[in-house]
Amino acid sequence: METKPIISVRDLRRTFGNVQAVRGLSFEIYQGQVVGFIGANGSGKTTTMRIMATLEVPGTGTVEICGNDVVNYPDRVRRKVGWMPDSFGTYTAMTVFEYLDFYGRAFGYRAAQRLARVREVMDFTDLTSLAERPMNKLSKGMGQRLCLGRTLMHDPEVLIMDEPAAGLDPKARIEFKRLVRLLAEQGKTIFISSHILSELGEMCDSLVFIDAGRIVHHGTAESLQNGATAAETVMFVQLAGNPESLREWVRMNPGVTLVEMVKTGARLRLGAESPEEAAGFLKKMIADGLPVCEFHRETRRLEDAFVEILRQGEPGAGTPPPLPKKGSR
After folding, report:
1. Which of 158, 196, 184 is nearest to 70 (CA)?
2. Which helix (H) or strand (E) holds 222?
């Protein structure tokens, strides 16, 4: 028996005046998946997420969360969804505990049950030691944990997160990724947008890339990095001496393209598809006197893959296949 999707978006469209913000998006997400939502500013990400969270109304098309249409049954959807916006308001005379306690009341928790739920959420988000701190005196990372705590108060099945890691320091980003994976292990379905593609690749089961309101890639990070356009070999070459000598070597060797110079070497695109051909280039570098101390093949970066897709101008027209179900990556 086939599992039904937790999130189903079909031919979603939304315009603002003459601007077509969302143009025919269709995708499905299954329980327990962590799915990254990626696109440049103005690509339609936030509009799509706000429609999913019942904060915007679609022009045409449908969105269903846990089998409930977001337009016809918004109250049912809100009980199932935790919405984490990219920013939220703070109050000068309210502590972390009081803020979460207020939302506990709003979600219908009473007396001892509410206190237990607030403590549970604070423990999970590592806010217990900050319970009495004014919420407007929190660091960016602490504030994001508080926003996540608010999102989790009613124990939603689906989490929709808009740029939750924006502005976090490296330590806070690592902690946030850990919390996301813990939530996925609990069976939560997570739809998360970010501009940090490398982190989404590590954190997510699948990716939805959009541009100008349309899907341009729909699948796993691996399928994007290893797609048909990734046939050429990109090597990282590090030299013991001045890496500038690589620039001159590239000019003298047809079939080699300089992708990027870095502090200790360079990234080179070789006209080679097999390990044997790549080894031939290494042998020639050494024969030509280059002091090579590191030479390895790179997996195509998500940023490079996304830019390449946009450069090709793929419209993403038509209905893409559904995202792979959990466990099929």
Report:
1. 158
2. helix 221-225
Longest dimension (CA), the chain: 78
What pTM does this model have?
0.77
* pLDDT tens string 224-271: 666 544 445 778 899 988 888 999 999 999 888 898 898 889 989 887
CB 124 within 8 A of CB 82: no
- How is 135-170 classified by DSSP, letter by letter? GGG--HHHHHHHHHHHHHTT--SEEEEESTTTT--H
Whether residue 300 contacts residue 222, with contact meaning beta carbons closer than 8 Å, is answered with: no
Q: Compute CA distances 63 → 48, 85, 138, 212, 230, whole Å.
A: 10, 19, 36, 19, 34
Sheet of strand 256-261: strand arrangement? 256-261, 265-270, 233-239, 292-297
Distance, CA of 124 to CA of 134 (rounded, Å): 19
CA–CA gap between residue 79 and residue 161 (Å, rounded)? 16
pLDDT digits (tens, 9 = 90+) for 289-322: 999 999 987 766 777 777 777 766 644 434 444 4
Terminus-to-terminus CA distance in the chain, angstroms?
Answer: 20
Q: Which residues contact 135 (CB under 8 A, 6 or more apart)?
A: 90, 91, 94, 95, 96, 99, 143, 146
* Separation CA 107–CA 101 (nearest Å): 10
For 191-206, the pLDDT digits (tens) are 999 877 777 777 888 9
- The burial class, CB within 10 Å (0-12 / 13-18 / 19+), for 79 is middle
